[in-house]
């Protein structure tokens, strides 16, 4: 299919989104994020031929939040390989993103690396015995190299805001510790995690960073094809919290959402896509962003489940 | 990639599988299935160019059991369209295939159509106000037409055996009824479901029936491409019970398993694959079959998450 | 303490109850019970000196429902002794009366004989290999002998109404069967249970039947003192479903409620008390009945936790 | 009943207990407690006539651990009255003592003040805005005054040992904080709680302190009769964690256990009893202590459920 009409379609979709009556509500548990104007929408794509497209607020930086879990996972798999899976599972959770229930049921081994408990274990593993700044530096290096853009930074105010309201995550960390599934002090892991979540990127930067997962031609080879495929599989089954099955059904592409309103989508071999709109649905995924992702997938026919 | 070496590789994999020390254990809760010799393995593929391959016990009929959920789902979506989703969700369950826990938590709306509770609702919806034989005839028609083979039958002894040991499913049915999510009498739905699960197919027949989901060229168009894609998405996120995430991670293809030991796999646009070996792993999925699926995906490079 | 003022106080409390703004709502899942006028209240007491007191609708028959679990438990302990406890636990459930969750968690052994699952096992044990009418006859004999009143009957219309809306209990029964914790066919146990629940008694009859648990002097010795004490203990910890702790805290006496609006209370050695008002609170216990029980306990100072 | 034979019976029971083959295992999650020799048993009673009895290691101090929850509850009810119940429930939990599951299910309101989460809220409420030493001083004052013995102290080594292994409790505290059900910093509450649990008492001291709950004549009136009754009710329904129902069934007296192996029992108006033996059963209650409690209740006939 020719993608000649895609730029125009993106503009059209952004315009339609801007007319949305219901934008959802920005995450309110992190004060810095609650301040964001919900009536914003952006999108950017990187195609296999090197074309980059953008529409709406494609160049406005936002807090990537849980999308950072993809990058910390990629980094830690690079360091530890499959050893990580002794500490974290690979199954959808069937519960909310910050639930502690299944953690109890499964003796402190989080179901997957994209629920908070699993992401905290991932960050703990990335820390190893190192200082937080070393682990963060490794993530930042990976993200910048993948995006081929050094102008990507951590928003310290957001990190501090998250640390100050981190009771639930601290509970998860102590719970993991009680099951001997935490190597570093809870506060240290929490601080590292809060900073990693506070990475700011634009849709354009995020789409570029996602090219390594889409395995687009001519892109810096940050991770092996097998690893990229497996991360995509995890994004497909676990990337949208308890809305993952529905997202796979409606959109048909691996994706990872963040409570900052961003979603990174991967069409392997074809495109890397970033959408952003700060208002969230009941599962904690961007409401307008999910709609936009579905419409782009519908227009282009991109679906890993299609021929 | 040329598939010239594939026939030989299939023979090699089957030979390697036959040397397996641990075949897993056949389902023991259905007496008729418990009798099956576990030391069997079969595989069949249909490729996009019309080639059909087979190795091992590719022509030995087995009880497809839960794989029938794919066909009843396809049939009922054809009758009801998206109305079904008012009664069943599309999310992985995070629990065992016959768990009643989440059913309680979610007020009688099963998480997805592939856990038992959801499949029972699907069969109930397919029944509508009709007689069991009419619903069964509709499923059989779909399966036979998709496989282009009329020699596919229901094993009555297996159906009776399943009905006689159906306490857990009867509990689910009455529970659904108590939540007004059952239209027909529990016994009627149970009887229909037991018969649908007792369909016998060979790997070759199953691979042929799966072509409609793989959307291979020149195959009878039983369902629309959008519907096929969506069923594939459900197979990816929910097809292997509480082992679905791991299956997606390791195999990278949508699949649906049955406690008879069969697995149907879909490589959209490329191939339809059926593997069979009666011994099960701890999740209720074929142990050697899962291994075989992973090896075939590894050899061919087929993965929906690859370029 | 002299109880001379008690008759007058009962009249006063009934009058105050009649002015209640909120009577709660009668059980609506059994159609026959839903018809009952909620604006009714009755109370009866049997004291250690043989005095019997009554106020309000003390002589109006009502459906004792789950209060019958006390009598079937007494009967089955008489038949089986402590063997019953291999099939049923003695712990409060921490969940609603008809929950299936903990049943799954504990492999089909109900937490106690007063949640529905446990009462169904109790009735199943009472049946042994006998006909329903034999088991029912045993319960009726016990109740009539304890109350020294043969004019106690089963309301067949209520029994049929309950059987017709028994999906949840049927689910529990099949679930118990799937765990090999049911000896008789689910339908047979359900029928027996529905009839046992449909016993009709007046407050006066119920208070008289309760004298065996209060171990009042000169009362027919239906059960041993040790057994009476233990049944009282179960009533204290499990008798009001998920409101048992609060009832113990507020009232301080063992009690067993039924969704017909009755509550049987036991002040060991001192009094047997029956209250009735059909409207229920959120736990399924009589709203005005609970209030009345608390006020009577407050006035008399009867509490097993007092000197 | 004459209690003349009781002293001899206590000696006999202690001798029989000393011959026990299986003492259970001391709590191993607090290193200081794990060191205790399990083959010890002590008992002390205070009777209504002022008699004090003891046998075995009645004068050996042990760590009262969770029994302190009774004293902190009494103290905080004295300060706050029924306001506490807005933050804590009064229902048995149906789960293990340190479970986090129901806390999630009930939005951060612990089921009762005797599971860890509820006891932490109780200590938090006792702190108010004060320093830990002020709250601890209040508890110590209450315990010493109730026992009429100033020689009761906190074992600092045990407190430090508990703080050092407090991951699970820290998880509960942060979880409570995330539900706005914690007023003070988690570390401060944890420190206070660890010290309160580390109070050391002998059986004799504990039995004396329990006289206020038994409301024995001539005992210092630390709390009102209504409050004593209500605390007894909570001990009855929730005092032995998930073994409370069974304890009520077997022993018939309100009791509160601690993982140090002590149990405080209350026979209202009749006696206050303390038993101690460090080995625990599967619920975390003293194994030999529970046996001893049951035998004493059996010998004396003391049961709140008896006439």
UniProtKB/TrEMBL annotation, chains A, B, C, D:
GO molecular function, a single term: glutaminase activity
Catalytic activity annotation: L-glutamine + H2O = L-glutamate + NH4(+)
Residues annotated for substrate binding in this entry: 66, 116, 162, 169, 193, 241, 259
Alphabetical GO biological process terms: glutamate biosynthetic process; L-glutamine catabolic process
Transmembrane intervals: none
Family annotation (InterPro entries): Beta-lactam/transpept-like, Glutaminase
EC numbers: 3.5.1.2
Top-rank taxon, per record: Bacteria
Pfam families linked: Glutaminase (PF04960)
Subunit structure: Homotetramer.
HAMAP family to which the protein is assigned, alphabetical: Glutaminase
Listed NCBIfam families: Gln_ase, PRK00971.1-2
Family stated for the protein in its record: Belongs to the glutaminase family.
Record-given protein name: Glutaminase
Organism: Mameliella alba
């Amino acid at each position: 299919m020719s993608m000649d009409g895609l730029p125009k379609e993106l503009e059209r979709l952004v315009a339609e989104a801007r007319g949305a009556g219901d934008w959802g509500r920005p995450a309110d548990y992190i004060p810095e994020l609650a301040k964001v104007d919900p009536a914003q929408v952006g999108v950017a794509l990187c195609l296999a031929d090197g074309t980059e497209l953008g529409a709406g607020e494609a160049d406005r930086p936002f807090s990537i939040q849980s999308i950072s879990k993809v990058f910390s996972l990629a980094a830690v798999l690079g360091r530890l390989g499959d050893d990580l899976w002794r500490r974290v599972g690979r199954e959808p959770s069937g519960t909310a993103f910050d639930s502690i229930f299944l953690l109890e049921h499964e003796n402190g081994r989080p179901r997957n690396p994209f629920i908070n408990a699993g992401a905290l274990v991932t960050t703990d593993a990335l820390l190893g015995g190192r200082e937080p700044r070393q682990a963060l530096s490794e993530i930042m290096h990976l993200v910048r190299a993948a995006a081929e853009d050094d102008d990507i930074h951590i928003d310290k105010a957001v990190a501090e805001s998250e640390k100050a309201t981190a009771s639930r995550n601290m509970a998860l960390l102590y719970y993991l510790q009680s099951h001997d599934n935490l190597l570093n002090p809870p506060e240290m892991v929490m601080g590292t995690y809060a900073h990693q979540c506070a990475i700011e990127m634009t849709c354009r930067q995020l789409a570029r960073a996602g090219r390594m997962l889409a395995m687009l031609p001519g892109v810096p080879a940050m991770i092996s094809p097998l690893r990229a495929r497996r991360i995509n599989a995890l994004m497909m089954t676990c990337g949208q919290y308890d809305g993952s099955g529905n997202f796979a059904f409606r959109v048909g592409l691996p994706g990872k959402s963040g409570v900052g309103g961003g979603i990174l989508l991967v069409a392997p071999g074809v495109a890397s896509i970033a959408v952003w709109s700060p208002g969230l649905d009941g599962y904690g995924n961007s409401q307008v962003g999910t709609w936009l992702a579905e419409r782009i997938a519908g227009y282009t026919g991109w679906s890993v489940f299609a021929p």
